[in-house]
Amino acid sequence: MKAAISDGAPVQNGADLIDLSPTTNGRVIPSAPPVINGVRKVKSQARTVKDWSVDDVCDWLSSLGLSKLSTTFKMNDIDGIELLELNKDVLETDLKISKCDS
Description:
mainly alpha, DNA polymerase, domain 1, two-stranded antiparallel ribbon, 4% strand
């Protein structure tokens, strides 16, 4: 998967992408808050991913066409802080999410 990477710095653009390449060690790091129906779901662009609620994470998943994963993320209380800590092993082992699920 190709994506924009963020280290938690303030959101600057609308690229809602992730990168699971070897250079990111499998970490899933979103770069922007969700955009649903052309409307940004945050009050300020200065919000960082670590400030996202579980609902923000689920909105972001939906914006990527991955809404079917929202239930798993909600059940596991994956907020922005947790999202930044996810890696391939956690996704596959703990959350039971594989490439086939996306």
